Amino acid sequence: MPGRSFIGGDWHAREDFTSLNPANLSEVVGTFPAATPAEVSAAVEAARAAFPGWRRTSRILRAEAFDRLAQLIKRDTDALATLMARECGKNVTECRAEVVEGLHMVQYVFGTGRTGVYGEVVASEIAEKDAFTRRKPWGVVAVVTPWNFPFAVPLWMLGPSLLEGNTCVFKPSEETPAIALKLVELFAEAGFPAGTVNLIHGRGDVGEALVKNPAVNVVCFTGSYAVGERIQQASATIPNRIVAAEMGGKNAVIVCDDARFDLAVNAGILSAFKTTGQRCVSASRIIVHESLVERYAKAFVDTAKRLQFGDPLDAKNFAGPLVNRKGVEKVLNYNALAKSEGVEVLLAPNGPPDAKGCFLTPFVYRTEAKPSLRVTHEEVFGPHVALIPFKTDEQAAAIYNDTEYGLSMAVITESYRRMRFFRDECEYGMGYVNLPSIGAEVHLPFGGVKKSGNGHPSAAALVEAVTHKTAWTVNHGTDIKMAQGLTTAI
Ligand code: UN1
């Protein structure tokens, strides 16, 4: 695929870097232009220039452009899923679900064009005054997205931003430029005006130039804490800069002693190994009641051994490879660290690392909860999971909270009282009961606390970050009456 960027409605092709299929590292999915500093500025200027016209377009008409986009996504679902599987290595069934998730965001945006609340009528102290709030777009939104959800996550950000009248500069991960390009081609085909959606490619230096551009009002980011922290620091001195950051997790499934056993095993397996453990909501800790832990460990390891990690295009496989060699090295280093920290290894990858692609099978270990263990505290992003026993619910909540992250939590219990206990005592952004820690739906807020998020959840909730609320007060009287009883005598 000849890779292109899209700036102010013009396509630019150049061959600066390649996107490879992680299943074999030999198939070139596409060759892409890496934006120069001048191109980054041009993309921001194009978005800035398109802003007044887009802002003045009726919100309902802006939303209707998303109806056209939805039709195109439906038309191309299979092709999008196949391209995504080739480019990021996720199994094609997961890729299809991700295209559907992106479609859901687009449908949500279309629907909220007519129904969404973007202001409130409120009371005034003065009978003759009407008071109301109204949301206004900030202007230019930078959308900086990861490779693990290369279609849905950009739409979580582009959707609400554009609906509310902002214009966007989209900088996808350098691992998944092809699927990003396809998405932007669909925006263009759907008739979004030139400059409303701009696409630039490249590595961290391109993202940095974009984020440091003071004409960018909002940065929507999903990725690592290290990068999110740099974005927040670079933004601190830019006036009116909003950063909505979602930055990883050390998520867990808590299995109580009243859990339905098979459901608990399946929830653990899906949380740990779906997407080969590469969701920011993947669980790398399963906190299991001590009365169940022996039986759970055996069933979990037996199931993990049977999972097929293979060709992403073969729908029968459970999951695919990791995204790149660096990802493989990182997980192998954590596997080695676990051993050196003295945990009990229950399952290790079968055989030496895949020499041709990025395949890696699960690593499962058991350990008591210990604050000193790095391996149970740091994000791994791969098929690597700890089983940690607990005695009391208080202890389970304390183990869950003993990380710097707070993104996603699943509790497996039949007890409403326990569900409420964990709901109130744990620190997280997304809680699940009798489900895996993965699988959010787009109309719910997506984000976390601590190092996982900065208080601006994504997906439907992103509307808060990409708009600012204005207050309006209108006097219907024939003279002036002031609030707070202020005298108006002159
Ligand atoms: C991510 O891992 O970055 O909740 C996003 C889920 C998906 C989105 C994951 N809907 O598992």
Query: What is the spatial order of strands in the main beta sheet?
Result: 14-15-16-13-12-18-19
Give me the Rg, rounded: 24 Å
Helix content: 25-40%
Oligomeric description of these chains? single chain
Largest sheet: 7 strands, mixed
Overall spatial form: globular
Structure description:
The structure is a single chain. The protein is 38% helix and 21% strand. The chain is an alpha/beta fold and 490 residues long. The strands form seven sheets. Strands 14-15-16-13-12-18-19 form a seven-stranded mixed β-sheet, sandwiched between helices. The protein has a five-stranded parallel β-sheet with strand order 9-8-7-10-11, with helices on both faces. A three-stranded antiparallel β-sheet has the order 5-6-23. Helix 2 packs antiparallel against helix 4, helix 4 (92-115) runs parallel beside helix 5 and helix 9 crosses helix 10 (293-306). The chain is globular, with a radius of gyration of 24 Å. 52% of the residues are buried. Residues 101, 148-149, 153, 222, 279-281, 438-440 line the site of 2-aminohexanedioic acid.
Summarize the structure.
This protein has 490 residues and is of the alpha/beta class.
